[in-house]
Amino acid sequence: MTLNQGLSDVGEQVRGALPPEIFEILDAERRRAATTKFAEAGDKIEDFTLPGADGVPVSLGELIADGPAVLVFYRGQWCPYCNLTLRTYQQELLPELAGLGARLAAISPQRPDGSPIEGLAFPVLSDAGSTVARGLGLSYPVSGPVREAMQTLGTDLEQVNGTWELVHPAVVVVDRDRVLRFVDVHPDFTTRTEPAQILEAVKSL
Question: Thioredoxin domain: from which residue to which, for each copy (predicted)?
């Protein structure tokens, strides 16, 4: 089963678990056309230092010190699509990247809570305020209807992230000169980059 086939199954579970009116609001957000200009391959990313979930800071310089880095931008731990994606990357991507001399890190706007995410052996970083994501065109404000729907479901992004902003899920591959060599953005947050695509991008460097 591919990652996106698994995510489709998650979507069916979400549909069955949510009130129909809430699901329709969130699904409309999923289908909303992206209006932001995203970073592209060939652009440069600014250096950054972000705290990990355990509070330990990690810099981009550290991640690319010995080879390229794969940066995974995701919405937050409350997102079931994100959780499946990160677990899949842990199982299928991380061992292969290690053999290619590449590092993997995940980044979300969620504030660090003082503890690492269980089962993940790569850095999970907090881009509170979405400074890094905004520089890549990935950050966007949550609409009023979606904000109300999320609050109804018990997710208050202002408490979790500090702002009512989210990021479009994305994977970027950064070389040692901080040049983006691969960029794949998913405005439809129910889909993600397959591990094979990422490995192909890294192997092509």
Answer: 39-205
